[in-house]
Design goal:
Helix 1 runs antiparallel to helix 2, helix 1 (9-41) packs across helix 7 and helix 3 runs antiparallel to helix 6 (140-172). The chain has 282 residues and is mostly helical. It contains 11 helices and no strands.
């Protein structure tokens, strides 16, 4: 098999963008989808809607990756939009939560129920708060408010940093990805023709399209099946091995075939002559 053509920097960036976009998209779909189902099970309609909106963002990003695989530069814009969509959804949700803190509801409804529950279990709620949290009972509501704002504020900050950073990352790479997609799309590997079925000791030797050199695997196969190699075949294989054009395993395969099938006197003479002419002679 021919050696792979090295990727250009633009193609490396394109491959990285596609991998990152796909990973990001599937994380949104799986995690947010699972969160939406869980929210529905617990009767949280708002949480379920937010989860579904994040899933939409994941599908937008998957669509962008699919466009890139089809060599359409517009896929990059979809990746940017997907990140901004996710950022907007989470930001609105966090802002809503931060603005919905109700100290009165906590004081009049939640804490009395918590005290009743602790009392029914033979425990003192105020002692639990004091010993477990290190907070005086009359300072519990300010403490909860602080934790509440810290939690949603942290989520909002991480979202702005990550989703905003990803949107900026994709946006800055639009020119280089467009360059990679506009370049001629070449086959990166030259696939060799299939091995001929061993139908006898001698069969026609194939050449690559356009003529020129033999295929080394055909020479190996002919000797493996007991055929007598021609002088051109032997010269070609020795020259390719010395020049480093053939892999070590190909030379090893031919040597193994020679070991099992042997060489005729004529082949031995040709091989000796080819090896002699492969280097400097005195």
């Amino acid at each position: 098999m021919a050696a792979p053509t090295p990727l250009t920097p633009a193609e490396v960036t394109l491959a990285r963008v596609k991998r990152l976009g796909a990973l990001d998209a599937w994380s949104y779909v799986v995690i947010a989808g699972g969160g939406a189902i869980g929210a529905l099970l617990f009767g949280d309609l708002v949480g379920a809607i937010v989860g579904l909106l994040l899933v939409v963002g994941g599908f937008i990003e998957l669509r962008g990756v699919k466009r890139l695989k089809k060599r359409d530069p517009e896929g990059m814009k979809l990746l940017v939009r997907a990140e901004l969509w996710v950022l907007a959804v989470i930001a609105v949700y966090c802002a809503r939560c931060l603005g919905s803190f109700d100290a009165g509801y906590l004081h009049d409804d939640v804490l009395p129920h918590a005290r009743e529950l602790a009392s029914s279990l033979g425990a003192n709620f105020d002692e639990i708060v004091r010993d477990g949290l290190g907070v005086a009972p009359d300072q519990l509501i300010p403490y909860v408010r602080k934790v509440f704002f810290l939690l949603y504020g942290s989520v909002l900050l991480v979202t702005v940093i990550y989703q905003g950073g990803m949107a900026l990352y994709f946006r800055r790479r639009i020119p280089i990805v467009t360059e990679a997609l506009s370049a001629p799309h070449e086959q990166r590997w030259q696939k060799p023709p299939p091995m001929p079925p061993p139908g006898g000791p001698v069969y026609a030797l194939r050449r690559p399209a356009g003529g020129g050199a033999f295929f080394p695997q055909d020479i190996i196969a002919r000797k493996r099946d007991g055929a007598e190699l021609t002088r051109d075949e032997i010269d070609f294989f020795v020259r390719g091995t010395v020049d480093g054009k053939f892999a070590d395993y190909q030379a090893s395969a031919l040597l193994m075939a020679i070991f099992w099938r042997g060489l005729s006197a004529q082949e031995t003479a040709w091989l000796t002559d080819a090896m002699m002419r492969s280097g400097d002679t005195i």
